[in-house]
């Protein structure tokens, strides 16, 4: 009787294994993010997500020289924004959940900022970076976010959401789709 029970349980586990494995892998991808780093990728600087196993995926490419005259070279912007993202991650208990990126205006500049929910907006305390002229040309904030965060990634499960007409990128969804 005990042997039959073991086989029945093993059968149930085997039937559910693919679902459990996929879910476990997804949860593992979320939990395996170690940090963001500024790295040189194909000749340009990029803020990359780094998993605990060392795998990396570019999140933001820093190619604009628009701010270089003011001392903000692509390398410096990469380093500063990467540091800010790591600060946001630390403040959130090293979890990506409930971190959103959105576009707003602070001190007459169009900026990308991080917020903890889809009811919040940009302010001087949560600015990640100022948009370049090229990226702020669009009057559609959703289009700006889609261009910034790799349209190829966004087209496969679009993490851009809207709340009251304001677009938000779920950072957890974005990073998970990169890997």
Report the structural category.
alpha+beta
Assembly state (oligomeric): single chain
Query: What Rg do the Cα atoms give?
Result: 20 Å
Counting H and I runs of at least 4 residues, what is the number of helices?
A: 6
Question: Element order, helices and strands?
Answer: HEEEHEEEHHHEEH
Indicate the mean pLDDT: 77
What strand order characterises the main sheet?
6-5-4-8-7
**Low-confidence stretches at least 5 residues in length (pLDDT < 50)?**
1-30, 151-155
Main sheet specs? 5 strands, antiparallel
Distance between the termini: 46 Å
Helix content: 40-55%
The total domain count is: 1
Protein name: COP23 domain-containing protein
Keywords: Signal
Signal peptide: 1-21
InterPro entries: COP23
Question: Can you give me a brief rundown of this structure?
Answer:
This is COP23 domain-containing protein. The strands form two sheets. A five-stranded antiparallel beta sheet has the order 6-5-4-8-7. Strands 1-2-3 form a three-stranded antiparallel beta sheet. It contains six helices and eight strands.
Topology diagram in text:
Layout: H1 2-31, E1 33-41, E2 44-51, E3 56-62, H2 74-91, E4 100-106, E5 109-115, E6 127-130, H3 133-136, H4 141-148, H5 151-154, E7 160-163, E8 166-170, H6 171-178
Antiparallel strand pairs: 1-2, 2-3, 4-5, 4-8, 5-6, 7-8
Protein name: COP23 domain-containing protein
InterPro entries: COP23
Pfam families: COP23
Task: Walk me through what this model shows.
- The protein has six helices and eight strands.
- By secondary structure, it is an alpha+beta fold.
- The protein has one domain (33-178).
- The protein is globular, with a radius of gyration of 20 Å.
- This is COP23 domain-containing protein.
- Keywords: Signal.
């Amino acid at each position: 009787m005990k042997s039959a029970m073991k086989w029945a349980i093993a059968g149930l586990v085997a039937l559910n294994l693919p679902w459990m494995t996929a879910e476990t892998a997804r949860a593992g991808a979320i939990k395996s993010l170690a940090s963001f780093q500024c790295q040189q990728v194909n000749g340009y600087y990029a803020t990359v997500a780094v998993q605990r196993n060392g795998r990396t995926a570019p999140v933001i490419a820093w190619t604009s020289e628009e701010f270089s005259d003011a001392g903000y070279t692509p390398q410096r912007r990469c380093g500063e924004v990467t540091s800010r993202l790591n600060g946001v991650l630390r403040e959130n208990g090293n979890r990506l959940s409930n971190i959103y990126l959105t576009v707003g205006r602070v001190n007459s500049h169009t900026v990308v900022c991080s917020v903890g929910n889809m009811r919040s907006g940009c302010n001087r305390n949560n600015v990640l970076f100022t948009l370049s002229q090229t990226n702020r040309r669009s009057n559609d904030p959703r289009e700006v976010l889609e261009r910034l965060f790799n349209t190829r990634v966004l087209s496969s499960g679009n993490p851009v959401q809207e709340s009251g007409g304001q677009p938000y990128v779920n950072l957890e969804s974005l990073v998970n789709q990169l890997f």
